[in-house]
Amino acid sequence: MAARKPFADSDTADEAVRATCDDATICKRFASSKGYWKDPYIQYFVRSVGERKAPEINRGYYARVHGVNHLLDAFIRKTECHCQIINLGAGLDTTFWRLKDINLMPRKFFEVDFPTVVARKIHNIKLPTLLLSECVLVYMTCLQSSNLVHWAAETFHTAMFISYEQVNMSDRFSQVMVENLQRRHCTLAGLEACQSLDSQKERFLKTGWEHADALDMMTIYNMLPQDDVARIERLEFLDEKELLQQLLQHYSICWATKDKLNLGLSQLAF
Ligand SMILES: C[S@@+](CC[C@H](N)C(=O)[O-])C[C@H]1O[C@@H](n2cnc3c(N)ncnc32)[C@H](O)[C@@H]1O
After folding, report:
1. For the CA atoms of 74, 79, 83, 89, what is the dihedral angle to 10 degrees?
2. Which structural domain, as residue segments, surrounds residue 119?
């Protein structure tokens, strides 16, 4: 028991140090909301403006922020941005975005802090994410692909997943496709999710995605800009139009969205 005590103490001390990043950000958030300086990014780290802070605190932060920024910007200008910045104990500081906005980006910008503080910051700055898989999920079992898209739904709050792969895989045409691939020792382990447009969508709707849609490639082909379709159709003579049709009916694009930022991602369509 005695041997554990110093560890417990240092854990508590570390926690208290980590918590100071909230103190700093809360104070900066309040002062910037009062108009001491502009910081459009700090709201992403501290949602509400919080309790009023005394004027001397706000002025102290004003002097701190302007003083540090003055020297920082002067250094970057002097080096014409051919420099790097290492922000030790960066906490939830928003300098990176301020520099980006004023076109004063150094070559490299590092932030160092405790892993938990860095992880929190990363979580807050996750910007919309697009995940793309073209002919990939079908090579996994349905359980594996479901786990994958579930992980994506859990990890990214504002995201879109685009998946291109087989669909309508229960007829003779698809059987031939599967046999051809099997001859090459290639198994489509996730065929079950490729039975229909609905089964494609279900994989997403059952795993935390808010919205999902799917179209077969024949439909999409007909929705593409028809002047360009006419152009590519003139490139080569196609004898068997039915074959193309069959082929396109057996592939699809399924897309799913999650939209915590309310960007209107569910309206994205063809
Ligand atoms: C008062 S906050 C200041 C945050 C930021 N620099 C600002 O002005 O908004 C101090 C920061 O230093 C970090 N820190 C202190 N000691 C550290 C250490 N040994 N290793 C990594 N980070 C440390 C804390 O986790 C915290 O985020």
Report:
1. -20
2. 2-125
